[in-house]
Amino acid sequence: MSAVSTRRIPHTPPPSFEGVAGELAVGTCGRGSGCPSPRTYLADGRRICWHRRAPDGWRLAIDAELTSQPVPPSLGIRVATTSPSEFWPAWTRTEVVCKLLDVPVLVWLTRHGLHSEPAAVRLHTVVTADGLVVTVGARPV
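User: That's the sequence. What structure does it adopt?
Assistant: Structure tokens below.
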């Protein structure tokens, strides 16, 4: 007799990333001091909240960076690029993967590098007109 898998399969489809740009709140959530949504902080201290409820069976995460900030030299050497337009989108994607999988980012970089994305993780990156690169992602739980 074969073993039956007990892995939970999401009953809802993966979230669509349509309309993500309109669901981002930069600076304040407008809901008091807390933010119940996935959130991240920029180098200048502003908070970005992604006003999206996770569908049943899915986990959400967000990361963002300022496109104008230089690449830290220690990271640029580690991943072989110092171009902000190349580095920050890849970095935010890597950060979201790590948040979704509960893996420290430096461990991920050592094992997989900056441009590795697991198949179970869905990602979407937006570069905004006001100089932000924002990546949101989802994975089944």
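The chain has one domain: 20-140.
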